[in-house]
Design brief:
The chain has a 13-stranded antiparallel beta sheet. It is of the alpha+beta class. The protein has one domain: Clam (outer membrane lipoprotein receptor (LolB), chain A), CATH 2.50.20. It is built from three helices and 13 strands; from the N terminus they run αββββββααβββββββ.
Amino acid sequence: MKKLQLLSLLMFMTIGGYAQSASSIISKADDKMRGQKNYTENTIQIIRPSWKREMKMKSWSYGTEYSLSYLTAPAKDKGTVFLKRNRELWNWLPSIERTIKMPPSMLSQSWMGSDLTNDDLVKETSNKDDFTSKIIGTEVINGRKCWKIDMTPKPEAAVVWGKIISWVDQKDYIYLKSEYYDEDEYLVNTMTATDVKTLGGRVLASKMTIEPADEPGNKTVMIINKIDFNANVSPSFFTVQNMKRVR
């Protein structure tokens, strides 16, 4: 009887630790990439079979509640700004001098004709807060041993994806690969991360490639050129009025 009780206890501890481990891994991976206050400079390449477009962008964020992104190139898009304040999303278009409040339904839409969604840009979705995670295996990605983690949305979460499967590096807690599925569990996008290096004092993947499952030859590449995890920003920086002034 004692042996049976001990076995049941060990099984409970193993299952409980396993689930907690998945949650902890996702939390560490999210916190490492986001930080509390950061500033980034990115290059975004939209690649199609017959053409290629490149954009450059500056972004600021404060926790998970605030983010602001400012396009610096090409010239025709320079000055375009995207703002997130809690659950509100705004877009400033300098060409028509107009600020537009974006409805939540726009989160799943393509950002600037790329394979990124508006949600990817403003980081409205939080993997650690909006999904329930579990480890479903281990695999090696680019020579790095990874946890393979299944993430399903919590019932109350307003998220874009029906499921995400991510491969997180066991050494540096980097998302090296993620597969994004719709609510019917059809694969929509695959993200792969490469060029691991030290940026802003942290070991990160500096290049992310997003490829849509149903459009072979199409992809969007995001390159982190610079990142500062001690940016001098506060919630007062992220205002609709500041969208017109930020540079």
